[in-house]
Write a structure and sequence with these properties.
By secondary structure, the chain is α+β, with helices and mostly antiparallel strands. It has helices at 15-26, 43-50, 74-84, 94-109, 112-117, 133-153, 164-178, 185-195, 198-209, and strands at residues 3-8, 32-35, 58-62, 69-72.
Length: 222
């Protein structure tokens, strides 16, 4: 029997942890969870104990006889989950799959203004938040990308069925909800669909139960 453990950060703040966690839930995997509070005095020692990269998320997997394996980086973990699930989380159509991988790579390596100005904060809702021009351009890009994927796939998820792309953009949905970002109708509907996902609701409920505060992520409306 395979025993899996996912090492994550705070559920209120750690968007990178949320991505593989959601996908593991959608895969109906049973797994243990170790949560490391970020930006605390105990964080360095806990990271050294549980993560070779000193970052989260990390997936550790132990079989009956095989040596424990460690997979780090949210995208690498998601790709591993997909491979273990016979490719379930990428579409079979090569063109649509390529579009999805491009969208995930863009999220994985970009949108820096969005990340900086709209940090994930599942517990809060801000009214009157105004993004900078740079952040607004990234919001517009994401809106355009979502609509392009939904049109190409026919929905209801970005690539038709739930995929790695949806797991990767779920924290962005959380940001858009937190900061009450104005979106086109199709994108609003997509956000509502993600918000209604059972795994998303489970993550958010746990985030709201956390007590730690990371001050740099506590953005005030402006």
């Amino acid at each position: 029997m395979t025993e899996r453990t996912l090492i994550i950060g705070n559920k209120n703040y750690s968007s990178w942890s949320m991505r593989p966690w959601l996908l593991m839930k959608q895969a109906n995997w049973s797994f243990n969870e170790i949560r490391i509070p970020l930006m605390t005095d105990e964080m360095p020692a806990l990271m050294a104990q549980h993560s070779s990269s000193r970052k989260v998320p990390v997936l550790k997997e132990q079989g009956d006889q095989a040596q424990e394996i460690e997979i780090w980086d949210s995208l690498a973990i998601c790709e591993y989950i997909n491979e273990c699930c016979e490719g379930q989380f990428w579409p079979k159509d090569p063109t649509l799959r390529a579009m999805g991988r491009s969208a995930v790579s863009e999220m994985h390596s970009g949108f820096f203004a969005l990340r900086a100005e709209l940090p994930m904060n599942m517990r809060k809702t801000f009214s009157g938040f105004t993004p900078s021009d740079a952040a607004q351009k990234e919001i517009d890009r994401i809106s355009s990308l979502w609509q392009q994927l939904l049109t190409a796939s026919g929905g209801p998820w970005l690539l038709g069925d739930f995929s790695i792309a949806d797991a990767f953009y779920a924290p962005v949905v959380g940001r858009f909800i937190t900061y009450q970002v104005d979106l086109p109708e199709a994108c609003q509907a997509y956000c509502q669909q993600v918000e209604q996902l059972e795994a998303y609701q489970e993550w958010k409920a746990a985030a709201c139960d956390e007590s730690e505060v990371i001050q740099v992520a506590e953005v005030e409306a402006h």
